[in-house]
Amino acid sequence: MSQPSDEGLIQRLKVAWRNERCSPELLPAEQVLVDKVMNLVEAQERQIEEQWEAENKEESVRIAMALQQLELDRIRFMLRSYLRARLNKVEKYTTYYLDNSKVDCLSDNERSFAIRYKEMIERHFEVSLLNEIPEKLRSLETVTTEINMVPKPDLTAHVFCLVQENLPPIDLGQHYDPLDLQKDDVYMTRYELVKEFVESNRIVLI
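Above: the chain's sequence. Below: its structure in token form.
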């Protein structure tokens, strides 16, 4: 991971991973970044394997390769954790994210997974319950003023955030003074108030 471009990819993955794990909603998919990091890791692992098979007996070289492999394992962990955090949200809010206005947050693979997952859940409920009740009560997507059967993320959830640059103050409501967002400061506030800054990478969730 010696090249600056490689380090930049890993840093971007770290930010995307932290934001995704801490955000109450699904952030826009970083599929291009994921693919680039996967290609980088696989290329590095092939290089280590080739060096190892060359039977280099120098202890210092073998130690360096072992340390490099540990770093690659750490990056793979971040990738898996990032994708797992996204899939957890897709499973929890499947119908919400398959709505036409939200589907752009999903990668192609996530969209295919969400469609199959929704179909599987609907078949399960039909077999176990819905076929036994009146047809007008069978919908799993009822949304009225009294009933909302489509769960969605709670954007009012509080998050910790690290400010990456000086930003305009945010309005906390009529009973509070505006919150000045200064570079390198850490705040706890409602996610909905900093959502735009998170999506533009001007604030990192921690």
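The longest strand covers residues 158-163.
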